[in-house]
Write a structure and sequence with these properties.
The chain is mainly alpha-helical. The chain has a domain at 29-70. 50% of the residues lie in helices and 7% in strands. The chain has 2 helices and 2 strands. It has a two-stranded antiparallel sheet with strand order 1-2. A hairpin with a 5-residue loop joins strand 1 (13-14) and strand 2 (20-22). It starts with 12 loop residues before the first strand and ends with a helix.
């Protein structure tokens, strides 16, 4: 399972004279994005501490990536 897939990559941005004004960026990983989405739901439940929320959010993200790859 590749955990480093970029979620919001952005190509190099140039103006009409091809001068670069914004370099290419990979953005956050898809795993980080999935974990952030899961974290919101876990925090809303208000039943666990912050360390547990983070651990569970990444566990959910990893499961989402596994399911996505099947």
């Amino acid at each position: 399972m590749n955990k480093d897939i970029p979620a919001f990559p952005r190509p190099v941005s140039t103006d009409k004279d091809t001068d670069t004004f914004a370099p290419e960026q990979d953005g956050m990983t898809l795993r980080d994005y999935f974990a952030g989405q899961a974290m919101g739901a876990l925090i809303a439940q208000n039943t666990m501490g912050s360390d547990e929320v983070a651990m569970n959010a990444y566990s959910i993200a990893d499961e989402m990536l596994r399911e996505r790859n099947e």
